[in-house]
Design brief:
The protein is α/β, with parallel strands linked by helices. The chain contains 14 helices and 31 strands. The strands form six sheets. Strands 2-1-3-4-11-10-9-6-7 form a nine-stranded mixed beta sheet, sandwiched between helices.
């Protein structure tokens, strides 16, 4: 057990003894060393007005910080706080007793990270007066800000980022460090912090002056007030309506910020801060976003409507020729001679492609009826497994998350309906932004307005042929070479730090007769392969996402004298997948010298992640025990392993 953690235990124990017996304290017994509990404690309050606090848990998992416990505020104890390296407090009011409990924890050596903290504890964070609030402002990460020897903003994007929601405007004390600055507009700086840190007693405290959980949910899922509203008046209620503004005006998403994964970047700041607070006591492993050492992915999807058989054949032929595997969503309502046969799908599935449904919501009907109809048709027509991913025809949507619930009832686990499409994207100067209308290129489960999670992951579709090409009804009228250049720029930006799963849609419609869409497919896939980007279908990506999300680190133990960290990885054994653990390359001035997995020396690679060098440990998906040693002079990351990471992904189906 670390000295800081022992100090917290002793401080709290002494406080309890003094409260019962007065000022005469008795000596506390020495606490045993050994495995820690989860390093992170997430404190939520189901009774709070803001119901989205528990979404911080999904945020931690998205960032690979899976080793956390969650507790309701009204049952929180000093003993629970003392067992964790850092406590994260969701936005909530506090009783005076709860405020005292958290204050004692920090001043006794604990680390607290709070979202828009209650006024009773704001003094812990180095802030003074609250001069009011700011709605729907911006923030700028201070990439060079130093707090206790660390710079959590290093390498993160320095452009201003949107905040959906309310931020408190605090003046600062001399002890405070601003980690992110609050802006009233994208270009108008305020004197107030968006994220602030301070030392308090012998502990540390960091506050987001806005609620990060709500901001991420609203950025990713759009404006809840637009649920079931046909904002643009085009007759259909679509996912893109959630990102527009009723009555005109600026869209929900700042179009100048669409090239930036705004939600992801703010999550990364959170993860950096959490890591720094945990590492006061010991190194902490973290799951990387992608398999192996990949820094981006290309996910291939396709929608099929009223096509000739040759359109299907040509699309699959070109996918195979350029080493791409696609998930194709099939519609009902076509002439029977246009449908691919069951034999076709069996052949194509054997080549690595997968097939799902493309529900069509009839006028006046429900989303449930749309799924029931297409599910029945697919089951009676084909024998291949149906994909557990989906895209709805016309990207129609019900409610804020109602469609996700319908999908879950139909055993769908990943949704691709949030989609870069529409005339609304064009900026006043006539240009078209590309990137992230949801502020994210990463999968996360939908969160309902009551703070509960659905079982369905949201994954943005960033590159759509029916946005780019006139032949597909698109608005931008790009040539094939222009579309390839766009793909190249997005892949390059992702590799350079956006770190996204870039999803394409290649419609079957008109494919065999259109050279422009064929040029884009070939150039897009060829460039991704030339940059070493894995190209997967939607089911492969879902399989990896579920395996990574549900994994955990357990029995994390640090022995400081020899510099040895040990932990277990609890993960479902999944053939063909190689999730990766990120480890600090240097800890407490000592380099990572060696790693063993299940008792055998195991190699790692050194990668630069957002300007920070880290060790990446890629291990086949299963449960493992890991030991890493930080000591002595730097040695090259070499070694032998009895576990050979597979080089190709594998698709599995469940229904």
């Amino acid at each position: 057990m670390s000295l800081k953690r022992m100090a917290i235990h002793l401080f709290i124990l002494a406080s309890l003894v003094m409260s019962v017996f007065g000022s005469t304290a008795i000596a506390a017994p020495a606490l045993p060393s050994g495995p820690t509990t989860a390093p992170i404690l997430l404190i939520v309050n189901s009774a709070a007005t803001n119901k989205l606090g528990p979404y911080l848990g999904e945020t931690l998992r998205a960032e690979g910080l899976n080793a956390f416990d969650q507790v309701e505020l009204d049952s929180l104890t000093a003993a629970q706080l003392a067992q964790h390296d850092v406590a994260i407090l969701a936005q909530t009011p506090l009783t005076s007793g709860q405020a005292s409990l958290l204050t004692n924890y920090v001043q006794g050596g604990g680390a607290l990270l709070a979202m828009r903290p209650d006024a009773q504890i704001t003094g812990l964070f180095g802030v003074d007066q609250n001069l009011g609030t700011l709605s729907n402002g911006y923030l700028q990460i201070q990439t060079a800000a130093v707090f206790n020897g660390g710079t959590p903003g290093t390498g993160l994007i320095s452009a201003t980022l949107q905040i959906h929601g309310t931020a408190d405007q605090y003046t600062l004390t001399s002890s405070a460090v601003t980690l992110a600055q609050l802006y009233s507009t994208a270009a108008s700086r305020t004197p107030y912090p968006a994220v602030v840190a301070a030392n308090s007693g012998s502990g540390q405290a960091v506050a987001f002056t806005y609620d990060l959980a709500s901001n991420i949910a609203y950025t990713r899922q759009g404006n809840p007030a637009n649920a079931n509203v046909d904002v643009d008046g085009d007759y259909y209620v679509r996912t893109v309506d959630l990102f527009q503004t009723v009555g005109g005006g600026a869209p929900w998403i700042d179009r100048d910020k669409i090239p930036i994964p705004q939600a992801d970047e703010q999550q990364r700041l959170l993860a950096r801060i959490v890591q720094q607070l945990v590492e006061r006591n010991h190194p902490m492993p973290q799951f990387w976003y992608f398999p192996g050492t990949a820094k981006t992915m290309l996910i291939l999807t396709s929608d099929a409507h009223w096509n000739t058989h040759n359109d299907y054949v040509q699309l699959i032929t070109d996918m195979n020729a350029h080493q791409g595997k696609v998930t194709m969503y099939l519609s009902t309502g076509q002439n029977t001679w246009d449908w691919p046969s069951d034999a076709d799908l069996q052949t194509w599935e054997a080549q690595g492609h997968t097939f799902g449904v493309h529900p069509t919501r009839a006028d006046g009907s429900t989303m449930t009826a749309a799924f029931d109809s297409v599910e029945s048709w697919f089951a009676s027509t084909y024998t291949v497994p149906r994909s557990n991913t989906v895209r709805v025809h016309r990207i129609e949507w019900q409610g804020w998350t109602d469609t996700a619930d319908v999908e879950a009832a139909n055993h769908i686990a990943m949704d691709f309906n949030f989609y870069h499409w529409g005339q609304w994207l064009q900026k006043p100067d006539g240009t078209w932004p590309h990137g992230y209308i949801t502020g994210s290129g990463l999968p996360m489960k939908f969160v309902r307005a009551d703070g509960t999670l659905t079982s369905v992951y949201q994954q943005l579709t960033e590159m759509a042929d029916d946005q780019m090409f006139a032949v597909q009804g698109g608005f931008e009228g790009l040539t094939g070479s222009q579309a390839v250049a766009l793909s190249q720029s997005m892949i390059d930006a992702s590799l350079a730090g956006n770190y996204s799963a870039l999803t394409d849609i290649h419609h079957v419609d008109n494919y065999s007769s259109s050279t422009v869409v064929q040029t884009w497919l070939a150039g897009d896939l060829d460039y991704a392969r030339s940059r070493g980007v894995p190209i997967w279908n939607a089911d492969q990506w879902l399989n990896f996402t579920q395996t990574r999300h549900d994994a955990n680190y357990t029995n994390i133990a640090w022995n400081a004298t020899p510099g040895v960290l040990s932990f277990n990885i609890a993960m479902t054994a999944t053939a063909g997948l190689t999730p990766t653990t990120i480890l600090p390359l240097i800890y407490a001035g000592q380099p990572l010298q060696s790693v063993s997995v299940d008792g055998a020396t195991y190699s790692f690679t050194v990668q630069t992640i957002k300007s920070i060098d880290a060790a990446l440990l890629s291990i086949p998906a299963a449960s493992h025990s890991v030991t890493e040693t930080y000591t002595g002079v730097t040695l090259p990351p070499t070694g032998t392993s009895t576990l050979t990471p597979p080089t190709t992904p594998h698709t599995t189906h469940t229904s």
